Fold this sequence. Notes:
The complex is a heterodimer of chains A (273) and B (261). Chain A contains 12 helices and no strands. Chain A is mainly α and 273 residues long. The longest helix of chain A has 28 residues, at 245-272. Chain A starts with 8 loop residues before the first helix and ends with a helix. Chain B has a single domain (36-236), classed as 3-Layer(aba) Sandwich (Rossmann fold), CATH 3.40.50.300. In chain B, 45% of the residues are buried. Chain B starts with 13 loop residues before the first strand and ends in a 20-residue tail after the last helix. Chain B has 261 residues and is of the alpha/beta class.
Amino acid sequence: MSLSLLQYDFIQNALAAGLLAGIACGVVGTYVVVRRMVFISGGLSHATFGGIGMAYYLGFNPLTGALLFAVLGALGIGAASQKTRLSEDTTIGVLWASGMALGVVFVGLASGYAPDLFSYLFGNILTVQRGELLTMLALDAVILATVFVFYKEFLAVSFDEEFTRVEGVPARALDLLLLGLVALTIVTVIRVVGIVLVIALLTIPPAIARYYTSSLSRMMLLSSIIGVALSVAGLTLSYALNIASGATIILLGSLTLLVVLATQRLRFRSNGT
Amino acid sequence: MASITWEQAPRTGNVLEVDHVSFSYGATPVLEDVNLILQDGDFLGIIGPNGGGKSTLLKIILGLIQPTHGSVRVWGQAPERSSHRIGYVPQHTTFDRRFPINVWDVVMTGRLSRSHMLKPYTEEDRLKARDSLETVGMLPLQHRPIGELSGGQQQRALIARALVRDPSLLLLDEAMAAVDPSGQEDMYALLDQLSKRMSIMMVSHNLSAISTYVDKVACLNQRLYYHGSKEISAEDIQAAYGCPVELLAHGAPHRVLRRHE
């Protein structure tokens, strides 16, 4: 990206959005990957479409609607796993589809058509507004502060939940809190890659980072750097080629992961024989 | 043993009392009328086939699940209230080997408790962790990622995590399953050493995994066959396993284990 582009507000906003999304995804995505919460994250992100549709219909900020539904969805999954006999993946499947369905109904009810609906589904980093950046900044701050405060408890619960429960640590509450952080992260990232592609930004950077460290905190740091780098590089590439930014970021990530896998394999082979 | 403080055990000197405990998952009975008393300093081995209810019994003693009938007292109290004095060593298969954590951090998680939340680890926590790692012989490997260790070393790390809690009772679930044959003698020696400091109860599906060091042996398959001693009869084993156990054929018929000197 040539330097002259940096003077444009929308480019500055896009870079800031990439930074904030990359950090949130790197930190929370690390938990998602090591705790195998990928499917739950997918369910939550799709459920937020219900909130976005509702916001369109009632005329308030779609990100607020998404936040509401993400947090309610997290609480719902937590409650269902403790109070019902539904298995967790069933609950997630129901939440996933119902949220989407609700969103479709709301959007249909709203008069006229929703011009930027597509950008909530697949992201458009170039249209992020300053107000949305402030929301993202606030969410990032909450996420980082929570992880800082509960780092050792989250580590213990993620590593061996049963043992943590025996210790008298409120493992279920911590689980729910972690799910809440996933919800906040999804909202942070929606404007960048969209609800359909959120899972990729949550999982690809930690999946790459895992090959280079065996410490959870370093995995978070490395994932964040990778996430930011992917966002900025994807943004640049999409601008240069005039293609969708969210999809470019994700495809760049997938490609990077493939390259990492291939080099790891080569290295393993040359060491192994 | 000085590990019991009598203020905390007003009713009885028994470490553990399992009183007419039954448990079922829906209509499927897992435990039926299990009675067991563990006294201070005991080293009890419980053997039984897979699915015989060993892990369920452990979970009830730990307060993770409630018995359908009967009660469990640990130092005369409900399990949840005594769990800070229990060191639990789960099967080493319960965690993900690729989890990014090193031995030191695993052991430190043993220092957590409800009252410890929101506070950083203290110097005392670190001293305990160092002590425990030394006891199990893992201090030189403290920086190793858990996934790069052998099964026996992982087991030692999990024992160290239990020991940092200064337990008076150590519960081990299939502690020998991950240990290769050449390391088993060392592991028994470690448990023997620990049994001088605390009461120990270990469960295993493998008859030979219960070492010559244990003082008492029980057999569990839904029901518990236990005479408060080290000897179990061929009839007990057959009753528990539901068939003649091959191991008896090449051991002495009425004594599964060598005499404890």
